[in-house]
Amino acid sequence: MKNTSKYYLVDASVLPEVFLKVVEAKKILSSGTIKNVNEAVRKVGISRSAYYKYKDHIFPFYETSRGKVITLFFTVEDYAGILSSIINRIADSKANIITINQNIPINGLADVTITIETGQMIRDIKDLLDDISNIEGVKRQEILARE
């Protein structure tokens, strides 16, 4: 049978509330604070049938990025040590850096692409990007590609 699934990246603010509650219930279950589905769905305020209907079809972005190759893009100010700071944050998260490419700075800004493998990461890709965005001199960041 041919797989006809299509995938979209959608902002959570436009999703029906039930989808967000299913993700919340899955997070509670994976954390181990609640051991069974009945308690988790009761806590988030959805039915068991809604949970089971959607649980295999909605995932947080970071969850689908585990064990993947991701290319990150940054625009950074041109000063000594900024690339090292970014690399250190990536290394601290236990991501494996595959490639690094930094373009020649123009008007005091340089574009950097870093490709990482996320299989051994100890934190979510979103948390890593949030952490990197707090580095002084990082002006822009985005995920360019995921495999």
UniProtKB/TrEMBL annotation:
Q: Which residues form the ACT domain?
A: 71-146
PROSITE patterns from the entry? ACT
What the entry lists under Pfam families is as follows: ACT_4
Which SUPFAM superfamilies does this UniProt record tie to the protein? ACT-like
Organism's domain of life? Bacteria
Fetch the InterPro entries from UniProt: ACT-like_dom_sf, ACT_dom, UPF0735_ACT_dom-cont
Name the protein family.
Belongs to the UPF0735 family.
- What's the protein called, per UniProt? UPF0735 ACT domain-containing protein EFD62_15835
Organism annotation: Acetivibrio mesophilus
The upper taxonomy is: Bacteria, Bacillati, Bacillota, Clostridia, Eubacteriales
